[in-house]
Amino acid sequence: MRRIIILSCSLAFAADLMPAEPVPAPPRAAFEAVITQAREALTSGRIREAGSFLQEACPIRTLAASPPARAGVCYHFLAVVAMKETRTEEALELLRHAADAWAAAGREYQEAWGNTQLILADLYQQRHQPALAEVAISGYLQKLTEKDQDKRPEALSRLALVYGDTGRPELGRKTARDSLSAFGSLSVPRPAEAAYAHNTLGVLSLSMGKQAEAEVNLRRAVQLGMEALGEEHLDTVGYQTNLALALLAGGNADEAETLLRRARFVVERQPGASGNQLGMISAELSAVAIVHNKLAIAGEEARKALAILNRQQWPDRRATALAQVNLADVHMRANRLAEAESLLNEAIPSERNVAPNSRLLGDGVRRMAQLRVRQERWREASDLYRDAIGLYDRVVGADNPAVAPLLREYADTLKHDGRPKAEIRGVEMRAKTLLGFTSRR
Predict the structure, then answer these.
(1) Which of 76, 153, 349, 350 has its CB 3.0 to 4.6 Å from that of 182, i.e. a possible disulfide?
(2) How far is CA 412 from CA 153, 333, 389, in A?
């Protein structure tokens, strides 16, 4: 999920940064009044009205010649309106201008510059450009002074998510822990920001198959989100959606379904909600239905997810891949192997790109191996199982019992492929060892 807390905080912050020097028309008092009206309109969701106020206060053709502080305020609010109206390219350009204006305005506007950098990082993440997001956040962290260290934990939690999105989940988990440690040392608690950090650590832990750690952190994120933001805030709903995914991984489909039904109810009632968020909810509900063997519902939810995600300018590729793999599973159970293969051929390359070292990719490759078994293409199935097992070993750990079911499927495939008995026994023994490790736990 993509964070919006910084956006609401920076709205209030930017309105307080009115330039002290003389400014061209409209006069300072009128400018402040109109900006305040625009902020109130944005906060209450009256986006078009806010845009009208900003056209009056911030004629775009005059901003280049305006005092830097005023230009920064204007560019910032114009960017917020563009983001609300999903004009992402325009919002990016306006935010870059805002950052330049804050930098030119001097040291006293450093916090405004930093907030703009973090919003830019969010947009880069949304556009699947994590490398640019990393540059923006790293630049912000480098400029923090000793007296600015209270701003460090929030930036670290954002950087942790970027590391996860660029195939460095272990570094991401370490950075998320550093963020939480820094939050714990603050004199004034910041539960909303700490909730985001717990969510990040939970998501990264889940991607590495550390289900217990993921569930603990995601439950904490939900708790803090409810306390600080309320149960109907979209960030809180996002944390619940991620918790549901962890519960599914841990075999608790019933609680996951309860969370997802509630999340859908909230998201569908909020006009500013992300289509990606709704798409992920449907994708997860399709997984719940598969667990309950309700294949018609699973197929319906997966198709609904794909329809929603395909309408987004920047669809959540993880949600898309999850929906595709779930729908492929439904097709395989109905013996529609060609349809399943088509979906997996699209999902797996996307997973390799967006989540190269993840359980998500391992699950997709495993599903393709199962398809090849159904098609009696044993050699291809064996190769795919080796790929999936290698991914699981790297992500969740070679001693994790979650690898055992894959090993058993792999051993059965090797038998059909006519492989040496010693090789098959070696795979079977490893599976038994892992299952014995489970019983000792």
Answers:
(1) 153
(2) 49, 19, 14
Outline where 127-207 has alpha helix (H).
130-143, 152-165, 169-184, 191-207
| Helix, strand or coil, per DSSP, at residue 351 | helix
- Quick: pLDDT tens for 107-117: 888 888 988 99
- Distance of alpha carbon 71 from alpha carbon 94, whole angstroms: 10
Cβ proximity of 77 and 35 under 8 Å = yes
d(CA 4, CA 162): 16
What's the token pair of residue 339? 């349809």
**Single pTM value for the model:** 0.82
Q: How many CB atoms lie within 10 A of CB 188?
A: 5
Cα(151)–Cα(144) distance, integer angstroms: 8
Q: What is the pLDDT of residue 437?
A: 53
Contact 31, 70 (CB under 8 A): yes
State which amino acid sits at residue 350. Answer: S
The 10 Å Cβ neighbour count of residue 416 is 13
- Please count the other Cβ atoms lying within 10 Å of the Cβ belonging to residue 374: 14
